[in-house]
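Issue 218. Parser rejects a valid record. Input:
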Amino acid sequence: SIKLSHDIQKNIDLTKEVKVGDEFTLKLDIERRHRITRNHSSAHLLQSALKEVVGEHITQAGSYVDDTKMRFDFTHYKKLTEEELTLIETKVNEELSCNNWGNEYWGSQK
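Output the parser choked on:
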């Protein structure tokens, strides 16, 4: 198994000799990559909505994105209220529903 990037891994039969100049075929799971792209975009949208609703002092403290979920860690001095959470969620969902996040790139890869 050879890791090509943080989330793309290709299994290669290492019992066979691999030489410089050998050619390989890389097959991407385009649907999975599309889901990762959307979740990555949602992290940016969430940070923007947090700053708009809660304040510019919000900073990212970590995140995780894959094809099934997105986690976004941020700094803030108190717990968010239900009203803030609802407003943030609404802003992100509105942005996601009115834009085709990621389609510009992945649509051209067919």
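Fixed in the parser; the record now loads. Residues 30-53 form the longest helix (24 residues).
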